[in-house]
Amino acid sequence: MTAEASGSGSAGPGAGGSGSAVDPDAGLLAGRVAELVAGIVGQRWYGAHDRKVAGARIVDRAAIPAGAASVDGAGRGGSLRWSLLEVAFTDGEVATYQLVLDEATGEDAGSRPEVLRWMFPGLAVGQVRPLAGEQSNTSVVVDDATIVKLFRRVGPPGARNPDAEMVRALWEHGFGSVAEPVAEFTRGGRDLAAARRFLPAATSGWDLLLERAEVPDELYGLGEVTAHLHVALAEVFGDTPGAPQQWSAVMIAGLARAPLPDGLDATSRFAAVGALADAGRSIRIHGDYHLGQVLHEAGRWTVLDFEGEPARPRAERVAPSSALRDVAGMLRSFSYAAAVGDRPPSWEAGARQRFLDGYRSVDEVDRLLPGDPAVLLAAFELDKAVYEVGYERANRPDWEAIPLAAVRRLLR
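^ that's the sequence the OP posted. Answer follows.
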């Protein structure tokens, strides 16, 4: 669907713009922006709890009538209201959020059947249930056959959502370890939602590891799938010479976004990356690879959620990088599982080894890696741990101690 809304509303300093002169709801919109901002701040997918809001405005909107099959371009005529809210922060960053609200109750309506029918007119929608747990987006299971993901934080017009783009491209290339695409919902040049085949019997990698006292043998297969993923990404999107100086600069910049406690300084470790003579190849990567992003069912692994790390700027999330960055992400996830599951150090070491053995067994991935990957892999692990410190500080302060312990260990 590509129908366009006719007006916008704004509130707060520097928000800019106002409703269309012919829009009877324009005056009401400006008064509601502050209410909308207050409503999203408490959401898990807001992802900016450590920032201050400077202003906000509605940049697109539409009504969703009950039983809707079309867009009301004027934004009137239904009790369900869809909108895109652009929020400006005092640090200069701007984020756009997708909202779906029940006008009568003020409650989030992103998982309502009417909304899914409006977004995907060709999708049969019967029973729906939102997925529980911490989500950066809203995921809704439809009839235990399809899962719909509403992207809550969306990019600018014309900038593809990496999850929508990469899953479709990988599937059409023949890489079968992603969820089969069903449809995508776009509007105004933005990817806003994606429907995929649901795997009702699958277990997340996170749950699989926490359920097992011993290191699961399945981690070898996860390593294999990860290597095949990187080979496929290189084939679909191409590869270029590694860019260690650029990677080093990004790592150092990350220290400003997640300041470490006194006595912990990763600058020299990250600076050393820029001096590497052999850094392998640069490819599109998953970008937020961890145990919660993979499912296991009947001996098969499926990779999910290619949006990248939600707290990083979009330019970093879609930029090509080393395959080792994904490898480091999964290794860090083993560290989280060990901490949460109260596993001994030998358990984490065994999980790492089994995964890496599987990864290295795929000969085709060798051409993407440096001859000696140890230094670069360790740097990406440290970079991931620093990122996690900032992420946990903003979203789950009680968990900040987990990545801080890793930073201390990796800096020894």
